[in-house]
Amino acid sequence: MSFHHREPLTLRLSLGLIRTFRRLVPAVIREAWVREWEAEIQHKWSSLNRRQALDWRDRADVVRRSTGAIADAAWLRQQFTLDHDIMRDVRYALRMLHRRPAMSALAVLVLALGIGGTVAVFSVVDTLLLRDLPYRDAERVATIWLANREHPDEREGVAPGAFLDWRSRTKAFATIAAEDPFTLDYLGGAEPAKLMGGLVTEGFFEALGVTPLLGRSFRADEHTEGRSLVAMISYGAWQRIFGGRPSIVGEKVLFNDRTYEIIGVLPRWFHPNLQDLVREEEIWAPKIVQKFEYDNRRIRYWRVVARLAPDVGLDEARAELSTISSQLAREYPSTLANMTATVVPLRDHLAGPIHAPLRVLFGAVVLVLLLACANVASLLLAKAADRQREFALRAAIGASSWRLIRQTLVESVVLSTLACLGGLAVAHAAIRAFVSLGTTTVPQLSELTLDPRLVAFALATSVVSAIVVGLWPAIRLSRTGTRDDLAESGAGTTGSVDRRRFVSVLVVAEVALALVLLVGAGLLIRSFTTLAKVDPGFARANVAVLQVFAYGERYQTDAQRMAFFDQTRERIRTVPGVEQVGLVSAMPFGAANINIDGGIRVEGRPEPPESERPSTYLTVATGDYFRAMGIPLKKGRLFGDDDRPDGTPVALVNDQIAERLWPGGNPVDQRIRVNWLGRWRTLQVVGVVGRLRHESLDRATRPEVFMPLSQVPFGSLTYVVQTTDDAGALIPAIRSRIWEIDRTLPIYDASTVKTLVAQSLAPRRFVTDLVSVLAGLAFLLATLGIYGILTFATAQRTREIGIRMAVGGRAHDILTLVLSESARLIAVGVVLGLLGSLAAARLIAALLYSTSPTDPLTLTGTAALLGLVALVACYVPARRATRIDPLSALRTQ
């Protein structure tokens, strides 16, 4: 029967239980069984409902009645099929688990943590590395970047001229297209909004293999001058700005005082993440290549995607682009001499900065699962020792070895099944944590969910775990003899050589596995701590930043832009708590960092060959920017009111370029020429400031020349506001002061410097936190495991210890004996763990910053910590052994 939507939740739940477990019933009677039970529950519900208004006890009684179908289905299964013995073993296993609830609960909890962690991390690996991407033939799509030959891992955008050269020369790609980052202002909402997006060349969405959710993509003729303005929007923008109405396709919308027709909405999963923005891209329009862009091979800001041609592999495409890069380096030595094309598969690009650590994370969680299995195996071994007499009796009356092994394995499977259910709950919670913590780092993590594939993986993991934890106890018990073992079990002398050897192996394995994880986590924590302490060259505390783009009808002239920035700065200074207000074009760690580089020459010096001409980054700023950011002045002065538009053009240089161009000299009052946006400008150096890190703390500083805003009016600027207290709390007031001058101007990004730096560290923090949690879990499991194993081993030696004490052994001697044996096992585990750590450390070497994979402090510190805690865990059972009464031990054993 189908569930009607008007049926109460209690009734639907009860009927759902029946339908869930109907598969246990043999097929020949299944339908009749379902009808009978559904009629029973319906009758029960109706009779209660007619009699009185139902309270929670009545509803609970209906659900309880429906659970009887489970036992009934199980009974029918064993009556009508050949697996009668299996079902009897399952019932017996449940009774055995119920007999020792504390031990059973501990085993289920330990194994659930291991299974849950494995499933959660596998969900990340599956989403980013294994699952089919929604892009058409995604394995044939790649992103292409420019990189310095000396630092190939530091990818940069692509200069327009370089892309156009690639497009005209390559034959390895069926389609190669580019995105030119841009923004559009939308004023139709409650507040002005700035939509980040891109102007895309012909074939962009075809190269990616994306079909719009609604509408169509761009036509070829829309990439030419004179056509009507059209745009495509993201799913998020469709929902957030336009309310998700389907009629948006074909509507005319005003952006930047120009009318665009919305022709398409992209799918919800489309997150190309090409621009490394804090926010998602939300709008795209056709790119019309301008004449000057054919000659621009210096400023690298385009993003390139490509689709491989048929029968062309990725290695062939890389080889072709490498050859083209070498040709371009010879043809344009001043701009592309040290640059080469880097091809990154789309999957690797979408995985983002945690692509490399994923395998490390998965390896770490597998180690945790092994530790969990070792712990549960030790618990089962302890339980097996108590059941030796039981299994000896079974063998004596004719039970085969296979029958005994099956019973033990069934118990392990039942245990693992319960742990699997708990593990799924742990995985669900962990996945939600991944989504909340990781989506700013990797947008694709928003797609994480506990789908049927992960449930199947969890079930498979539980089955494997059941075999791992139950195999040795099963084999051990199956070898139990009859008369001798009955007598031996009665005497309790179960500390046989093979069992002691197994206990020793477990202790050594737990110490070694835990140490491998602890060392890995220690290295990552040490690396992260070192990186977080790196001086970026500016103050991080109490500085707010707000980025604007002052263009359009109201800011067509330099005077209009300057008037706006002067007025807004004066208004911002009136906010209580504001100390300094500066402006800069290239904000370090900014979401949309305006990086402009150009050639530089020192007047009066011979011009070097084209391939050796130096270049520098060019930044527009005010003098207060350096004060607000706490950037030190090394020599000379900062920009001031005397640097007027009609005065002598001046500049500040950072100490990095000063050391390069004037080693041992003083650059103040020297004259330089810089290529600012294709035009050479002569500037007089008036000061030297400290160097800054712009992209991240692990990227090197760069040469930089600063020009005063008063002499180089610029529209893309960031307000840098130093405050006396929490800068974030003043952002709303600062924003309102800007809107007092121009209510229609969107503020692209508003944040604090501290937040920007923290966001740059987010990928490393994400990986470090995960490995640290796994290492902490491994540490806890190892400690509990060692304690449990040695407690069991000591208990099995009660008779031996009693005899030793009966013949004159002192408590001190017993304590020394047990601790020395345990210490030897721990020492072996530490040695093996250190060897494993040295091998594993090489796998994470690429994730470390200024930290050696063989860092002696980390290796010795973690080994000493684990060894000390393991010895403490050994002391408790050893101390307990010294309190054994010899007469009682001999009598009870």
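The above is record 1. Record 2 follows with the same two-line structure.
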Amino acid sequence: MHLRNAAILFCLFCCVSLNAQILPFHSYTTRDGLPSNTITALYQDSRGFLWIGTNNGLSIYDGASFRNYTAANGLSNNWVTSIAESRTTPGRMWLGTIAGGINRWERGTWTTINIDTSYMADGYVGSVLEDYQGNLWCSSRLGVFVLNDSGLSRLNIAPQREDAVEIALISDSLIWVAMSRHLYVFTRAPNYDREIHLPLGDKGTITTLSQGTDGTVWVGLSDSSLIQIRDTIISVSTKLRSGIPSQIISLPAGQAGTKGLLWVRTYDHIVTLSETEPDIQKPLLYRNEKGIPPAVPLPILIDREDNLWIGGWVNGLHKLADRSFVHVPLGDSDAGAINVHTSADSNGHLWVGSLGGVWEFYRGETEDWNRTFHPLLQGTLNNPFLVDPLHRLWVVSNDWEQLHCYRIAQDAQASSRLFHLQTLDRRVYDPEGSFLGFYIDRRGHVWIATGSGIVVVDFLTKRILSRYPTTPSRPFGHVTAMYHDPEDRMWVGTFNKGLYVIRAQDGHLVRRLTKADGLPGDEIRSIFGDGNGQMWIGTRHSGLALMVKNDFRTLSMRDGLASNAIWAMHEDAQGRLWLQTDVGLVSIDRQNLRPLPLKPELVGEAVNTFGIYKNEFLWCKALSALTIMDFSKESHSMAPPPVHIQSFEAGGELFRHETEIELAHSQNTLTFEYVGISLRNEKGVRYRYRMLGIDTTWSQPNNQRRVTFATVDPGSYTFQVEAISGDGIPSIQPASASFIIIPPFWQRWWFVSLAVAAVSSILWTLYRYRIKKIVEMERLRVRIAGDLHDDVGTNLSSIQVASQIMERQASLSEQDRTQLREIGAIATSTQEMMRDIVWMLNPKNDTLDDFLLKMKEVAARLLQGMRYTFVAPDGRLLDKVSIEFKRNIFLIFKEVLNNIVRHAAATEAVIRVEQEDGIFSLEIKDNGKGFELEKFTAGNGLSNMRRRAAQIGGSIEITSKPGEGTVVTLSVKNHANA
């Protein structure tokens, strides 16, 4: 049986295929929207857009989508050879084609520049470049020509047949032209200033030309040489150790954290070297694509965010955003394993479980990751294992019953050797339990978690040191995480019973922490103590908790965390806490407990295990590969993303937003589409916007690239949008669109002015009409009052005199005299009433002062023979009062005085009138016999007084008791029924 196992292990060791490490390139092909997978030219314009030339048209990439242009959209030819932007008119683009001459793009329109065939055979243009004076330099098979407002001019150099011509602008005035075996310098066309003689040999040629830093020029030669020219003198000459240079890109010192780097593409791979020390060359691990012809130089580009773009011949465009990452495939034998464990030793070697043993990964002298397979009889593909600080490898056996320990004999830059030291059998320490996990503390003691608790075992003697819990009736349950802190306390996380803190020395339970104590959940999955002595607890469903003294600060998906499942934690020197979650590795800022931008290379795939080695690198194991992040090579793009408004739609109609727009009032449903260009992490770009004129506050950031405003009121507005890159860098300035929604004609100033004038005219006419009617009414009142006084008064006086004369006749009986006296009394009473009516009708008596004089007159007439007091406000009261006001109050007043005279048997009365804040108050008080209100019937006139008071919006209150007199109080506004 042992021989059979050994044979299997030998076969595995010999037959495993070792795949080379790869960089995390992201590829774009026709499936993503490119018009072709053959990339012929690359350029990033001043607005941040990436222009991609192919053999089947042009594509403009904004990080969200590809906009493609072909001959059907205005190109003269689909094969694009070169791309350049105007230096005098940013936004104007020049394209060279293989058989269609020159194309110009400006404001969304393509124009073909017609060139005489004597300058350009078969319409071929190899390269285009515009200088700072607006001259367009172009190369063709017939030479180099310059196009400007004055027309065409040819340079006084003639290429040999099939010469490759390259043009480079080195400064504001110097143009360099490389032509097979010749290098020329121009200050203006057509005559060159000088020719630079290069050490080409008999068959050597120039393969590429590029601008360096500080006005230098780099030239690639066919013998793999790189030459630097400063002030037309060769200053540096070095040779590439692999390949012939086909393209050179120079990054100035300080750009994207570089120090004068050269990127050189050969026909096989890419090499980076320092401009100051070009002999120090580092090949970039990029495997050439299958099918690329060896003699075709394909384009490369470093964009403003330090992304490396490589054009392919058959499989599209490739981007390397972060060169700190490398992926190492683990081989077909590990495919499908979801719980493969990984650990790191003190020398930075990584140990990865595999079928039949473990892989050891280590860096050699070239910093490439090498690996060696160590066969073990105890399979480790899905079994827990770890490497402790004492250079020992611990592995759980296949039956999950035994724990094997190996000593690692290490070599820093070579593979290690394993020597078996010890075996611990779980059944010896807990026969009834099951193996759940293990932990090695700082003393080297082994903590074995079983179903009934934890057993602590001395490694050398295999003796049990202690058991937890000490009381079997209170088990921990399923132990999921353990951590030994600097204060010699063991933190034990459980499946669903919270967290236990144990004193490791004597097993004393310090405390138990659960959700009731502030933990976000009781399902503990990870525990970590950081360099500041703070304890972090990860849960299965409730996120992360930081223990601060006796309280907890929590972080979950509600706060922006990518997942609430925290399986493991480690910290780095930059103050980041890295979390293993269901969506991959994420990080947070330990100081402010805030999630940091995601790294695309670490998310999207489940991670089994991860760790950090001495703040040098981070490693994690995913399903199919080991990913390593070198902190020393980590780059953070500080380039603010430019943001552009792509379309502005109002009422279903598209508008240009470059200038202020006037919109009709019916075009008040507005839609804006925008894009922020950050090509490092396109999916991480977020946006926030605001509409000045409605609100000045920014919206919450989101990844939506379209917003609609419905039913916007007329007015002046400015829409602003800002982009935030995946690294959290906002745009320098927002993109904006200003517009005015013109109000409908009925809301415009001229219409409002006319309407106000018209309404004012109508109101003035109505006012004049009302005044006229009032005057007519006053005249009528005066005429009626005069008629009543003259006619009715005269007749009543005649009746009164006639009745008195007839009463003196001796022949009349006593009964007749009595009737005549009654007729005279009625006439006298009617005459007095008529006088009162005439007084009320007369407009000269409409002031409150006139009304009080009338009340005093009536009181003097009705209260003859009785002592009374009339109290009125000082000064004249000139408030106007209506006829209804005078009539109702006057009748109430007379009714009260008549009741005092006829029924109260009073000897004294007090009349008090007050006027305050437009309220007229009348109080009449007597010392008569009084009465009981509840027994008083409605037929005595009280209901009439209440009705009259209600008619003018007033209130009346009567207070009386037998033997205590009566008080009547009336209150009403002066203008009532005016």
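Residues 1-19, 288-295 have pLDDT under 50 and may be disordered.
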